[in-house]
Amino acid sequence: MRVGSYEVSTVTAEWFRLDGGAMFGVVPRPMWEKTNSPDARNRILLAARVVLLQGDGRVAIIDAGCGGKEPEKFRDIYAIDRRPGLPDALAAIGVPRERVTDVVLSHLHFDHAGGGTERDGDRLVPTFPRATYHVQRANLEHARTPNERDRASYFAENFVPLEEAGVLRAHGPDDEILPGVFARVIDGHTPGQQMLAIGEGAGSVVFSGDLVPTASHLPIPYVMGYDLEPLKAMAEKRRWLGEWAERGTVVVFDHDPEMAAARIAVGPRGYHVVAERVEL
User: Fold this and answer.
1) Can you list the domains of the chain with their CATH numbers?
2) φ, ψ for residue 48 (rounded to 5)?
């Protein structure tokens, strides 16, 4: 899909699973399991989805997936399936890692930023050696001193090596991260999460991050147990879903295992995906 100067597509870095109850918060299992069938350990299948932007002299990705440097116990807990893994997935469509100029991280949780670094012997190095990495300053500061509730999602190995390599750039709210790519900061899930709007107005695409991780999360009350401030997350959903529905914005779902992107509409029962699926 062409948006402004960019060709926009999506890539699945890997597959993983999280607890279904945690993914849907106070929503009862008989409701969420209709569209998200859990395994024997109550985990639902999720994608680690990445947006690829090509144009304006850049090859940029939004988010980097889980990566492959964590120990086997960690991979078992989250059922991480790295087939193919982000570098190989990009190479398969003609984008070797050396061509990537920018990595924009919605936030530094392991399932969004873990793939940004990798092991090289005893060292941790940037996975994309020629890229500048972009994150919100507020999220970087929170990642350095996470609270007891979300410390299991933030790991220094996912961002400190980037700082040491001098490739991590911290941004402020509403910055233009790249030409034609704008940050929209939301805090309900975690402080300083940035959604990324590609283009403006009609015909734009937005990477919604964990505000709306799957199409099943479109109902306003369907917020995650992982959200630090669920009432704020609900208010943010009301604001942005309304705007996206009005403008016909294409919304990318970062974790939906089947639907990469869609336009949305509002009806008597709330927000829903329009009939025509958008291919990215």
Assistant:
1) 2-277 (3.60.15.10)
2) -100, 95
